[in-house]
Amino acid sequence: MPDPYRLGLIRQIAQHAHSEIIGMQPEGNWISRAPSLKRKAILLAKVQDEAGHGLYLYAAAETLGVSRSDLVDQLLTGRQKYSSIFNYPTLTWADVGTIGWLVDGAAIVNQVPLCRCSYGPYARAMIRICKEESFHQRQGFEILHTLAHGTPAQRAMAQDAVNRWWYPSLAMFGPPDTASTHSEQSMTWKIKRFSNDELRQRFVDMCVQQATVLGLSLPDPDLRWNAERDHYDFTQPDFHELMRVISGDGPCNRQRLEHRRRAHEEGAWVREAAAAYAAKRAAREPA
Ligand code: FAQ
Q1: CA separation for the pair 244, 84 (Å, rounded)
Q2: pLDDT given at position 186
Q3: Do residues 62 and 68 touch, judged by C-beta distance below 8 A?
Q4: Residues of 200-209 as b/e, b for ≥16 C-beta within 10 angstroms?
Q5: What's the burial of 93, exposed, middle or buried (CB within 10 Å: 0-12/13-18/19+)?
Q6: Alpha-carbon distance 237 to 239, whole Å?
């Protein structure tokens, strides 16, 4: 395997794994505040799924000759990135629905092609992840549908959340193709199968129909069908804001990393106990 291919994959898979782990925080914030026991149980399961996705992805990265502890260290010291989207706050319960609908929706559009990428362990991890993401997307859609058909205050809360998450969700697909440093190489190697702009367009086309079913609007006055292109025209997200958030200056960057560092330190005894238990069992088992 050529080294640049291996390193390119480690970069992308590690960022992806970190995103799943940091991505537990915005929704985790609502587990104790979910409006019913049923909603709480569903959200708890979703957040646990995200931990599982992180685990599959770290395991896929390890097949390329890196250790999980080294990758975690790179996240905690800010040398590796995670998705910009998880640096935005979840202000209301409607944000949980909107993350499911838009953020998981964008994740699915981006990740379904990865199920057929050129590196088997990553592709195979993505198959299971996409199935679970699809459940996540539907639970978000259902939360928003309930709110959008509830009281005027609930409806306003749902619309406000969609207004705040729309552009950050569009930015998840990365910089425009003209500014994407890795796309060309990643597409040649068939790690990426579609460009950032192609997937962003696919996501917009999909969301317009779904917003109609929800009875909510998307906050873009220039969103309209273009029969010549056979796609919706739309306003691009603010890519300067994306770069600012990626470089550590988003609304919640510091809080997210601080929380992760603390959780990692506080969980050290669990890792030590698990390692000691595994060593004891290995010593007891006949060779
Ligand atoms: N945020 O040259 P490109 C989820 C970086 S879904 C942060 O275009 P590339 C599920 C990029 O890394 C979210 N950084 O890069 C969930 C590169 O930086 P570098 C995770 C970004 O790799 C839902 C630089 O900018 N999904 O977690 C972003 O060809 C709900 C130049 O960009 C994945 O990771 C961004 N938005 O394309 C969990 C999918 N965009 O490394 C919980 C796999 C760009 O040079 C709750 N990854 N950058 O320092 C990919 O498909 C690609 O890596 C892209 C970026 C499309 C994200």
Answers
A1: 9
A2: 96
A3: yes
A4: bbbbbeebee
A5: buried
A6: 6
Residues in the ligand 1 pocket, defined by CB under 6 Å: 11-12, 15-16, 19-20, 23, 50, 81, 83-84, 99, 103-104, 107, 110-111, 171-175, 180-183, 186, 192, 196, 246
Sign of CA dihedral 3, 8, 9, 10: positive
Ligand 1 atom closest to 82 (CA): 7
The residue nearest atom 34 of ligand 1, judged by CA position, is 16
Atom of ligand 1 at shortest range from CA of 83 = 1
- Which tokens sit at 104? 């998981």
Tokens describing residue 262: 């603390």
* Interval 111-118 mean pLDDT: 97
The string over 158-172, giving b where at least 16 C-beta atoms fall within 10 Å of a residue's C-beta and e elsewhere, is bbbbbebbbbbbbbb
Question: Residue 285's pLDDT is what?
Answer: 79
Q: Take residue 3 and report the two structure tokens written for it.
A: 């080294």
183-214 tens-digit pLDDT: 999 999 999 999 999 999 999 999 999 999 99
Global confidence as pTM: 0.96
Kindly give the number of the ligand 1 atom that is closest to the alpha carbon of 11: 41
